[in-house]
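Re-run with default settings, no changes from the original entry. Doing this only to confirm the output is reproducible before filing.
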Amino acid sequence: MTTKDLDSGATLSPAAEDRATRRAGTRNASCERSTQGSILSMEDGSGSAAEPSNESEGPSRGPTGKEPEPIGKQSGLQPMPKRKIDWTNTLFIGAAHIAALVGLVWLIVNWHPATAVLGLVYFACCGLAITGGYHRLFAHRAYGARSPLRLFYLLFGAASVQNSALKWSADHRIHHAKVDTDDDPYNARRGFWWCHIGWVLVKDTREMDADSVKDLTRSRLIMLQHKHYLLLAIVWGALLPAAIGALWGDPIGGLLIAGFLRLVVQWHATFSVNSLAHMFGKQPYDVKGTARDSWVTAIVTLGEGYHNFHHRFQADYRNGVRWFQLDPTKWFVWSMSKVGVTRGLRRVPRQAIDRAREAVRNGSPKVEESVTS
């Protein structure tokens, strides 16, 4: 696949994507389990509608009718190896939380509506950059997008301080290939603390396998962002909010609120996809893993809470497959397709979704699905 293919929205077939994902997981299986890396530096680690479900919120029962063991207590996991603390990540994340608290106080004491709006707009832009860009476009190639939107995703993705799109996508593809195993960088079976934030606070001991994201390395924009990620994170995540706030005389508020307060809230929204979305909710499409659907999680993750559907049909551009399910990212991507900014939106046919639900009800093996554009 060429750079032109990437820019034009050409997508891999589901079978090819699955083979590539498995190869990426195989290449990484012999390495140390952690793949997160420093969030500040890449070099040193850096739908169609479905029938409503009758399952209740909470832990799902498997095909045998027995409740699975609680997360973190399942057998088959090796003891957690001793890991060195990544002091760069730990100190920065700690300082960012302190700055966010100061920003909250500043917002209350020095209230300015324009600064509050700036924080909300920045949260929406950075959130879409992660959910619509890093996740659904780059990591899963669930649709195609024109260069202006891809540039938007890369700039505000850098402001989200979650690593470059290339490194983020490499980690996420391994997560799907090796989900709930020791090779999963944020394995939910290790418990809430580990998959929510603990994995970010320890050192990465292996280099990123560029072969697992070879398709992305052919994109000039992605590689430029990867090379200049730290600079872009500082400029778009801190300096620009302060400069915008200065337009109405509140540069400190712009930095503290649209910069740090927004950043910390967004971090925990993203981390919730790795933790809450693997622990709370229903499993209407697949009971073999920990991923779950929950509208509550969807609220704080811009629609990423329908995670059981996503893990079952990861090539689909939607997470909330039903029209009323809260998925702002899906609505944004669909809206952009109506004006030609996005295209090739990949959807799993209704029949495949229904078969998956029926298989769960009947305790049948997982059925294969196809994806349409």
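The first helix runs from residue 3 to 8. Confidence is low (pLDDT under 50) at residues 1-18, 20-38, 41-75.
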